[in-house]
């Protein structure tokens, strides 16, 4: 009797786990669709997921039946109904509720001020900040405005907004310090580099003796939401130290992107 009871328990546990395995495979299929690859046929889905062809065919058929995927002849794409569900998730979502915990964690891990910038015309404005606990600090506060052409967060905001970049580059570039980039060709090169590398590091461009490291955050359409930045005195944040923190800052930016239901642009 004890053996039969144990077998029954194992069977029940297996039954509980089986649906989770199916959900994992469904997630793999849905994650295979990207902005660069919005539609695929069954063979392409199988290649992207590595799942058996029979499993892909069975799950895709069910996903279409329930509105997770839409079908057009032999190709499939994320279902329009998903936007209906996503709208309910995004309603009442306050970006600051997502950003602020990430800023505090980034501040605690680096010891430096972490902040979040958005573009406003040809300026950048700080909308959230977690200030360093060091007595020696570079002043930063919510509502702080700076030219978008100077500093790491500005570099990020320009790198993923081509229209804003061209508009800014038609104007004269302000010089705030001896290290401020005022040559338009050089700034264009640095913006391109930022887009390629996925982050920006600047030293002394806005304020002498201050450094910044920034990375982008995106929404569900792959559009830029803002720039996550860590900044502080170059005495503590040398260029080399910024390089050491690149992965940390990028990971926090990706964390915010995921929490917003966002994705990187194609």
From TrEMBL:
**What PROSITE patterns does the record point to?**
HTH_ICLR, ICLR_ED
Q: Any idea which UniProt keywords this protein has? A: DNA-binding, Transcription, Transcription regulation
Tell me the ranges covered by the HTH iclR-type domain, including all copies: 20-80
Q: Which Gene3D superfamilies does this chain map to?
A: 3.30.450.40, Winged helix-like DNA-binding domain superfamily/Winged helix DNA-binding domain
Q: Which residue range or ranges hold the IclR-ED domain? A: 81-262
Q: Under which name does UniProt file this protein?
A: IclR family transcriptional regulator
Q: Which organism is it from?
A: Streptomyces milbemycinicus
């Amino acid at each position: 009797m004890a053996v039969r009871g144990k077998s029954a328990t194992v069977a029940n546990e297996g039954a509980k786990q089986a649906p989770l395995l199916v959900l994992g495979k469904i997630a793999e299929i849905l994650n295979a669709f990207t902005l660069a690859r919005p539609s695929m046929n069954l063979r392409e889905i199988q290649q992207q997921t590595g799942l058996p062809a029979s499993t892909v065919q069975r799950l895709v058929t069910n996903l279409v039946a329930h509105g997770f995927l839409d079908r057009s002849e032999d190709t499939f794409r994320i279902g329009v109904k998903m936007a209906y569900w996503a709208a309910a998730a995004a309603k009442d979502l306050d970006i600051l509720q997502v950003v602020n915990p990430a800023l505090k964690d980034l501040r605690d891990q680096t010891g430096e001020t972490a902040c979040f910038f958005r573009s406003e015309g040809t300026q950048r404005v700080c909308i959230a900040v977690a200030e360093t606990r060091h007595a020696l600090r570079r002043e930063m506060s919510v509502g702080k405005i700076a030219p978008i052409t100077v500093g790491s967060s500005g570099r990020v905001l320009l790198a993923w907004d081509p229209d804003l970049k061209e508009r800014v580059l038609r104007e004269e570039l302000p010089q705030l310090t001896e290290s401020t980039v005022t040559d338009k060709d050089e700034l264009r090169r640095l913006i391109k580099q930022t887009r390629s590398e996925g982050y920006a590091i600047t030293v002394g461009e806005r304020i002498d003796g201050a450094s910044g490291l920034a990375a982008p955050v995106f929404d569900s359409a792959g559009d830029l939401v803002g720039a996550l930045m860590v900044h502080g005195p170059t005495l503590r944040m040398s260029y080399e130290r910024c390089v050491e923190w690149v992965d940390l800052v990028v990971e926090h930016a990706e964390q915010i992107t995921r929490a917003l239901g966002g994705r990187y642009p194609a």
